[in-house]
């Protein structure tokens, strides 16, 4: 995912931060090394350049609905670049709406962890 999708789609000379949770697959030595090459000193992660804050809400749009959608497509098999490219605009808009709802909930809760909720239309 890092080499096939993220790296080729980064803008040149970017000043972006990369944030991820502490899941073991995300903090593998090879993953962190690849991320550090793409985001020098800007990786927020368990073993990144900036430690994952202990009470940081996990506010990334894919976490709330997009990963579930993609996993349903492939039943936990590897997701291809083509499948990512075929995500409909409507699905991406739903993901964005869900994410914004979670951001508002986080603000209302003073920045604390979000409750486990199911977002319904």
Give an account of the 3D structure.
This protein has 121 residues and is mostly helical. It folds into 2 domains: 2-51, no CATH class; 61-108, no CATH class. The protein is built from 5 helices and 3 strands; from the N terminus they run H-E-H-E-E-H-H-H. It has helices spanning 2-6, 29-38, 61-74, 81-85, 89-108; strands spanning 18-19, 43-45, 50-51. It has a 3-stranded parallel beta sheet with strand order 1-2-3, covered by helices on one side. Helix 2 links the parallel strand 1 and strand 2 (43-45). Helix 3 packs antiparallel against helix 5. It is globular. InterPro entries: RNaseH_sf. One of its GO terms (molecular function) is nucleic acid binding.
Strand arrangement across the biggest beta sheet: 1-2-3
Beta strand count: 3
Largest sheet: 3 strands, parallel
Mean pLDDT: 76
Q: What number of structural domains do the residues give?
A: 2
C-alpha-based Rg, rounded: 15 Å
- The topology string of helices and strands comes to HEHEEHHH
| Fraction of helical residues | 40-55%
N→C terminal distance: 30 Å
Poorly predicted residue ranges: none
- What is the approximate shape? globular
Strand content: 5-15%
Q: What is the structural class? A: mainly alpha
Oligomer: single chain
* Structure annotation, total helices: 5
């Amino acid at each position: 995912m890092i080499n096939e999708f993220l790296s080729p789609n980064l803008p040149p000379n970017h000043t972006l931060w990369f944030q991820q949770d502490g899941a073991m697959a995300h903090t593998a030595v090879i993953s962190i090394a690849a991320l550090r090459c793409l985001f020098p000193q800007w990786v927020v992660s368990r073993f990144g350049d900036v430690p994952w804050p202990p009470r940081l809400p996990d506010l990334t749009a894919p976490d709330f609905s997009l990963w579930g959608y993609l996993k349903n497509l492939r039943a936990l098999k590897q997701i291809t670049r083509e499948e990512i490219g075929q995500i409909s605009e409507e699905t991406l808009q739903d993901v964005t709406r869900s994410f914004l709802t979670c951001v508002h909930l986080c603000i209302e809760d003073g920045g604390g962890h979000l409750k486990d909720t199911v977002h319904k239309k």
